[in-house]
Amino acid sequence: MNVSSVSSTFTTQRAAATETSSTATYDNFLKLLMTQMKNQDPTEPMKSTDYMAQLATFSQVEQTVKSNSKLDALLSSSTWAQADSVIGRTVSTADGKISGEVLSVTIASDGAVAKLKGGEQILLGPGIIVS
Known about the structure:
Number of helices: 2
Structural class: alpha+beta
Number of strands: 5
Distance between the termini: 20 Å
Radius of gyration: 24 Å
Strand content: 15-25%
Order of helices and strands: HHEEEEE
């Protein structure tokens, strides 16, 4: 199973989508700033320091969005690696009620879900024993 190619494709697609949305947001910000400048009161114009403060704040938000998308990609990669490492191994719940060999793993919104030979499914997370 070649998890790295799936994960890198997903990461590339996600990064492209994030960059497009960030650019669109930045363009919207510039349009808003220009409209604000055009419609300001000529007798009391906005100070240049206020403009710089707005630009700096927007820049910080944009960097935070980019950092979050990179963290999401890292988390996704980690989830794929975790999923790959349990296929073919035996997992069981902490109380021992469900146990079996992992046939496949599905990535869901709440994490990796292992499908066992007996048809049972276990959410991989705290309290799961892998042997």
